[in-house]
Each structure stands twice: as structure tokens, then as C-alpha cells.
Amino acid sequence: MKAPPFTLHRPATVDEAVALLADLADEGALVLAGGQSLVPMMALRLAYPPDLIDINGIAGLDRIEVSGDHLVIGALARHHDFRRPVAPGPFGALLAHISGEIAHYPIRTRGTFCGSLAHADPASEWCLTAATLGAEMVLQSQAGRRAVPVAEWFEGAMATVREPEELLVEVRLSRPAEDAVWGFYEFNRRAGDFAIGAALAGYRLEGGAMRDVRIGVGAVEEVPRRLEEVEAALEGEAPGPEAFRTAAEIAARAVEPLEDFATPADYRRDLAVTVIERALLEAGADRPDQRGMAA
Amino acid sequence: MKIALTVNGRPAALDVAPRTTLADCLRHALGLTGTHLACEHGVCGACTIIVDGAAVRGCLTLAVQADGAEVTTVEGLAGDGDLTPLQEAFRRHHALQCGFCTAGILTTLHALLSENPDVEADEIREVLSGNICRCTGYIPIVEAALEARAAYRRASDPAP
After folding, report:
1. CB distance A35–B60 less than 8 Å?
2. Class of domain A64-174
């Protein structure tokens, strides 16, 4: 189908964009960044915004830069911009790996990191990344700026604390320890489909024991999140298939899975265990050529 | 809204409704029907075109967003009459049958091979997962892309 009619606005600056939002957000105006979720939602008549505020003409919003203990990601940084590592070491390699798992190549060239966080689809790879590594969402409106930590960001599936008149101008993604190893694994029935289970796992090795363990699971519940019970079970243990399996099984009791016509909750529960186990195996292998094949 | 863009090397000035997709604009306003449309919500890949060097979905890009951009469609890949090395490889490997998906696959692979002429088979397959082909099968398409890499490597070498 075709999108319903709307009025397009093309602000040249963030100030112009938030002024437009102040005027038009109450009537349902939406921000257009990459458009890879919003435009199909309009074509399917799931969204009827009377006004679209296209921010693609705003200079400087495409920045991705390391700043202290954060990676600053501007509102127009595209998924594909992460394909060549944007930071040194395992962190840049991890983001490159994850970016390649998002949708399809011609969608990655347009879709944006910040758009994913604002859209808050439960299956979003970047939402899982932000929830696992830690992040702050920087919102701007005519009232000023505020930064929201990821723990307070999501309100549910496709829902965040962003007010309609606020623009998500950047995300500050926390940089993990330089010596942490990472694994990411997602499962879907066809390449490029929305994930129905995804996990991000990382840890540091200290004298043969895992420290600072991070386990995040996405596409299983309404909101991606860390599973502290699983993290605690691994903390101080030696990495290995048995430890990974035992800890991953805790996830089955910890999650309250989404259910839909194609995917029963029990199936997603099993899948949560499997994707966590595979993400851990990948982190343990830390071999880029083996990614996605550890099992 | 009035927009001005370059399509296959030729300037085009148009007046389009904001809701018009770039794919519809190319087909209806410019008569470039080589770009095909099937799902119209970004899943099938048939409408993939190249905007400022990047492969994009023509159905998920508004025509007004191409204002000032350089657009390449399947019609613009080859010069006058000659096939490109990628198109030659498609013919040699029988990488098309009905041809409906072919325009989107050629533009996708042209962008990919231009970006990385050394791309490996695994990545070619992953990229092709975004283009639904229901009759040819993907094996000859992957073989054609692998063979075409040599021509893209030569093209990306600095002139002697």
C-alpha cells in the first residue's frame, strides 16, 4: 500500500527541529530519520502522522565518536556506519558484528542507531546492546536537554519515556573494559527477519575466572534487559561449556517470554537459554571467523 | 514539493507529493520501470536502487529525500548497449530466470562490490538474503557475483 498523505518539514538545525516538534507533536507529528520502520508502518497504515519532521538535512548528527568512557552516537548514524569498526579492540569489533545482523544490507545503509532506540522494538539489536553495555539517551526539546539512563528508558514494547516533543539527539553508549571478550547470537527463521531470541554476553578473564559478567537478552520479553541471576552464576567461575550451560538454564526461570501466533512462550523460553549459551560460547571462542557457528 | 536530483547521470526536476516513494517517482514520473515493486514495505528487495553510492530500498525512501542526490537504477548500470561485467556474469551463469527480482539484485550487488571488491561468498549470501528470488535459485547468482569481483577489483585499482 501507499502511505497516507502528510506534510513534510525539513529543518536545517536541531533548534528548528525541536521548534517544529513543540508546535506539531501534540497533533501526532513524528520524526523521520532512517525511515526503515516508520515508512513501512505508514505504508501498512499502522501509522498516520499528519506531519513528518525529516532530520536528514541536519549537519553533524551523523557523528560517531569516542568521548571518555562513552561512544557518542548521533541521531543520523546509520547501522552500516558501524560495519567498519568505530572504536579500537573488541568493542569496535562487537558493534561491527552486531550491525551486520540487523535486517538487510540496503536497510542498514538508511536505518539509524538512535532510531532503533526511539522505536524500541523488542527484537532490536541496538536496544539489546544499549541495555547490556549501558547507555544514556540524550533528549532535546525547547525546554532543554536531559539524559535518560537505559534502565529508565523503556516502558514496554515500542514504548519509551521520550515525550512527543523531544528529539533523541544522541545516544552515549558505555565503553566496556578493553580486555572484555564478547559474543552476540541471534536466532530468526530467515536471515534478516526480526529476531525471536537474541543474547549479548561478555566477561573479563582474571586468573582464569570470569569477572564483570554481562548477560543481556533481547527479543524474548517486551524489553531487552540484563539477567543478573545468570551473571551472578557465572561471576568467578572458569569459562567453559558446562558453566555456560548451567548458567544459561537459569534464564528459563528468569524470563517472562512474549507470545505470538507463531512463537509460543515456552519455545521462546527454551530459545533464551540457547542464545545465551551460544553468545557465551562465542565470547569464549573469541574467533571472528567462528561467529554464529559455535554450538 | 519541488525536488532536483540526478538519475543515471541526467538531471531531473520534479514536483512530487511528500508521500511518493522514490521507487514510484522513478517509475511513474520518470518512466524508469526497470525498478520493480512487489511488497512495498522493505522486505522483498525488488526495488533496491543506489542513492549516493549506497544501496537503499526505493519503497522505503521518499522521493523528497532524494532531493540533491545522485540516483542509479538498473537502467543506469551499463553504458550504451554494453552489459557491465556483473551483468555479463549473470548471463554466463544463468543467474536470472523470470527477471523480476534481477534489477534489485544487480543494484544491491553493484553497491556491495563497489564498496568491497574482495567480499567473500558468506557475505554475498547474507546480503542476498535481502532479495527474494523465487525461481532462479541463489547458487548461480552467488557464482556470478564471485566472478564479477575481479572486474570491480580492477576498477578500484588506482590508474597506473
Report:
1. yes
2. alpha beta
A105-132 mean pLDDT = 98
Q: Does the beta-carbon distance from A192 to B129 stay under 8 Å?
A: yes
Q: Do B54 and A110 touch (CB under 8 A)?
A: yes
Look at residues B76, B98, B122 and tell me which one is the last residue of a structural domain.
B76
Query: What is the number of domains present in chain B?
Result: 2
pLDDT of residue B157 exceeding 60: yes
> Residue B114 burial (CB < 10 Å; 0-12/13-18/19+)?
middle
Residue A129 CB neighbours (<10 A): 28
> What is A7-54's CATH number?
3.30.43.10
Give the architecture (CATH level 2) of A181-290. Answer: 2-Layer Sandwich (3.30)
CB contact under 8 A, A105 and B19: no
Pick from B41, B56, B108: CB nearest A40: B41
Which residues, 6 or more positions from A46, have their beta carbon under 8 angstroms from its beta carbon? none
**pLDDT tens-place string over residues B40-68:** 999 999 999 999 999 999 999 999 999 99
| Residues in A touching B58 (Cβ below 8 Å) | none
Distances (CA, A) of A112 to A75, A103, A212: 7, 12, 29
| Minimal C-alpha gap between A75 and chain B (Å) | 16
Tens of pLDDT along A9-59?
Answer: 999 999 999 999 999 999 999 999 999 999 999 999 999 999 999 999 999
Q: Tell me, what's the pLDDT at A284? A: 85
The interface predicted TM-score (ipTM) is 0.94
Residues of A in contact with B56 (CB under 8 A): 106, 109-110
For the stretch A62-71, pLDDT in tens is: 999 999 999 9
| Residues near B42 by beta carbon (within 8 Å), at least 6 away in sequence | A36, A39, A40, A107, B57, B59, B60
Chain B residues with CB under 8 Å of A107 CB are 42, 57, 60, 130
